């Protein structure tokens, strides 16, 4: 039996992924490679919905690719590509815009949140049409499953609605995708403010562990992570959010269970525990960062890996656009 198709995308909007991105998303992308036919896309066109600096966009796109490869996305197992190198995304994006209702698009909560933040005069039209481009990203590859965080569920539902509408009106063209919501346990919180999500937009960044930060910087950050009242290393999300978050991080990277860790640190203080977490994180990330830096040093090679991925993606995407145009009656 052929494998189910998976597609996901990530925006190149930061110099480094953080531990939340890795444990909440990319680690599961890596795992899916062995059981699914996986397509992973760096969605640089989506990143244009906010003001961008050209040098930064380029740097971050390459840095994202290098980190995905260093984290275990394999060009042999997956099709890893840059969205803008596959023009079919824009072609199908327009068709999806013509399928979507204005009211339907206006109900997208991510659009409402993001546009409210900047005000309607500053919000770009691209922010409004973002979900239809995302629908195109998914439908072009006839994806069965879309691994994303909970916040993206509404966009996947919209994608299904648009695909179903097109199929009903113009003939069976698209696979209806399902959201594959990433495991809740993988949610990582800020280590300075452990009741909020670790996020690239967090104020000082002191609570965010970045993959591309030096081992020294990460060691210091973890050693100064906030802890909680008491002195027992116990998993208790409401009473001990700081310790619970550090236990989650340790367990996810070391592969040991939370119970094992609680046992090991029984009778020891928070200081010992934080040193152990720091060691695990730093040693886990060290080779990944080194590999990413190595990949970034040989830009020609990195670009050729991405060009190969984009060429494969164009073949699949091209067939979908042809079928879509045919259904619509576009003269080809
Ligand atoms: P973002 O760039 O914030 O949109 O995140 C990219 C991916 O990482 C999405 O799939 C998110 O669900 C995931 N992600 C971001 N922050 C966290 C976090 N703190 N814990 C778990 N997953 C996260
Ligand atoms: N909107 C997604 C996010 O913010 C990124 C994205 C763009 C995406 N296109 C996609 C995710 C297609 C899954 C599939 O995280």
Automatic annotation (TrEMBL):
Keywords: Aminoacyl-tRNA synthetase, ATP-binding, Ligase, Nucleotide-binding, Protein biosynthesis. Its EC number is 6.1.1.2. PANTHER family: TRYPTOPHAN--TRNA LIGASE, MITOCHONDRIAL (PTHR43766). NCBIfam families: trpS (TIGR00233). GO terms for biological process: tryptophanyl-tRNA aminoacylation. Belongs to the class-I aminoacyl-tRNA synthetase family. This is tryptophan--tRNA ligase. It is an enzyme of class 6 (ligase). One of its GO terms (cellular component) is mitochondrion. It is found in: Mitochondrion. It comes from freshwater metagenome. Its main location: mitochondrion. The keyword Nucleotidyltransferase does not apply. PROSITE patterns: AA_TRNA_LIGASE_I (PS00178). It catalyses: tRNA(Trp) + L-tryptophan + ATP = L-tryptophyl-tRNA(Trp) + AMP + diphosphate + H(+).
